[in-house]
Design a protein that fits this description.
Distance between the termini: 40 Å
CATH superfamily of the largest domain: MoaB/Mog-like domain
Largest sheet: 6 strands, mixed
Number of helices: 10
Order of helices and strands: EHHEHEHEHHEEEEHHEHEEHE
Number of domains: 2
CATH topology of the largest domain: Molybdenum Cofactor Biosythetic Enzyme, Chain A
Radius of gyration: 22 Å
Helix content: 25-40%
Strand order of the largest sheet: 2-1-3-8-7-6
Structural class: alpha/beta
CATH class of the largest domain: Alpha Beta
Number of strands: 12
Shape: elongated
CATH architecture of the largest domain: 3-Layer(aba) Sandwich
Strand content: 15-25%
Length: 293
């Protein structure tokens, strides 16, 4: 099980849309994991610490914190993690090296006026005791990996490109090991012209009851001027073969039952053993320091 704690005043003010949590949910799902809780909190040390304590008490495999790793005074997430796990913040030598190397790179590229480490930049290398830095291929603030009594806390910057790079590159082998061999898949069909979900609610209820390992979800959609109902079956399994076995029979039964009720059915898009990325890069939660001067 996975939980996400995203911090950002700008998100709660409505100034920024949190696409990071959506992307993380999709990525975790694709790896065979399951996000069971996602919350947004203000950039306040106590608020972050309280949410982290509550999450750890539920004993998930993994908790992501998102945002608040940058060099400015309102970047408070690691202080909140330190408080929530009762660990002191300390200067981490490896994190300091990573930040220094990144600012040398920024300087050579003309993105910052000086390469020297200062207190604002060094702030990004102060991690909770026992934490490991994760290479940030894009920005200045390293990600953070912290193991706490059987649970892993991963802190990620809020700039979407940085968060995604850390997860896709630095975290990839660790997440694969954490979730083990697992895959996720979907099958969907579309019922053109049907807008009232209650008409086939009984059919969906029967499919759901007969297949407890399959999640059945219907959504009314508008395609151009036409209305339609999209029904999606999804499941997790240890491999692609087991996944196909879980989904194929209920999908066929669903299509047959809806056709028998007098409605046309067309196949919708489906995915096997993973999810496609949303491709959105339009929002984030914090500045990791690349533009800091």
């Amino acid at each position: 099980m996975v939980e996400i704690v995203a911090a950002g005043n700008e998100v709660l003010l409505g100034d920024v849309l949190d696409t990071n949590s959506n992307w993380l949910c999709r990525r975790v799902t694709a790896l065979g994991g399951q996000v069971r809780r996602c919350v947004l909190v203000r950039d306040e040390v106590e608020a972050i610490a309280d949410e982290l304590r509550a999450a750890l008490a539920r004993r998930p495999q993994l908790v992501f914190t998102v945002g608040g790793l940058g060099p400015t005074e309102d970047d408070l997430t690691l202080r909140g993690v330190a408080l929530g796990t009762e660990r002191p913040l300390e200067l981490n030598a490896e994190a300091e090296r990573l930040v220094a190397e990144k600012y040398e790179e920024f300087f050579r590229s003309g993105h910052v006026p000086t390469p020297e480490m200062n207190e604002s930049r060094r702030k990004m290398a102060r991690l909770p005791c026992g934490a490991e830095p994760l290479v940030n291929p894009v920005g200045g603030a390293p990600g953070v990996w912290l193991e706490v009594e059987g649970c892993t806390v991963v802190s990620l910057p809020g700039v979407p490109g940085e968060l995604r790079a850390i997860v896709s590159e630095s975290l990839a082998p660790r997440l694969t090991a954490l979730f083990g061999p697992a895959c996720y898949g979907e099958r969907s069909l579309v019922v053109p012209g049907l807008q009232d979900e209650s008409v086939i609610a009984g059919v969906l209820r029967q499919i759901d009851a007969a297949n407890p390992d399959v999640y059945v979800k219907s959504r009314a959609r508008q395609f151009g001027e036409a209305r339609a109902l999209r029904i999606t079956l999804s499941a997790r399994a240890s491999d692609a073969g087991d996944l196909e076995a879980l989904l194929s029979a209920p999908f066929a039964a669903l299509a047959e039952a809806i056709a028998a009720a007098g409605y046309a059915v067309t196949n919708g898009a489906g995915t096997d053993a993973g999810c496609e990325d949303s491709g959105e890069d339009d929002a984030g939660l914090d500045d990791s320091g690349a533009d800091e001067s």
